[in-house]
Amino acid sequence: MKNLVSVFLTLLMFASMSPAQTGDLIIGKYQLPNNLEIEIFKSDGKYFGKIIGLSGFNEGQEQDIHNPDKSNQNDLLMGKTIIKDLEYDNTKHQWVDGSMYGPGKGLIFNLKIAKVRQDEIEVVASKFLFWKTLNWVRM
Q: Which domains are seen in the chain, by residue range?
């Protein structure tokens, strides 16, 4: 009976959340598989991500040396916004229509966040017909 009450209260809590509150579940700090540390934040109803740590990233890369715009190759990566314009889609329960700059290769990818778990988020990055699913660990 105690478990049934817990399940009911949990369901009630999620049902009472507004789409904005549900969308905000991704806000936080994450460790990416390439050792970048990012912070996802909300601004003007969309979600963005900036680099907050570089420990072990790309053999010590600190500048944006792979940027296709040569005038930006001396820019520091720390603090750089690399995730832009993610929007929460309440019908799909996903964050969609975003982009992510990959400083390791100097490429921009389409980005969506497909699932949120307690300790990680499942991210899908795509470029043309290619896509890759990654898990980012919550810090």
A: 20-138 (2.40.128.520)
How many other C-beta atoms lie within 10 A of the C-beta of residue 101? Answer: 21
Query: pLDDT of 97-113, one tens digit each?
Result: 999 999 999 999 999 99
Tell me which residue of 85, 61, 56 sits closest to 73, measured CA to CA: 61
DSSP 73: T
Provide φ and ψ at 108, rounded to 5°: -110, 130
User: Which residues are 88's β-sheet partners?
Assistant: 95
Name the residue type at position 18.
Answer: S
What is the distance between the alpha carbons of residues 10 and 7, in angstroms, rounded to a whole number?
A: 5
Tell me which DSSP letter residue 62 carries. -
* Dihedral (CA of 114, 21, 48, 117) sign: negative
State pLDDT tens for residues 3-16.
555 544 454 455 44
Q: Per DSSP, which regions of 1-129 are E strands?
A: 28-31, 37-43, 46-53, 81-89, 94-102, 107-116, 120-127
- Spatial CA neighbour of 121 closest among 27, 52, 34: 27
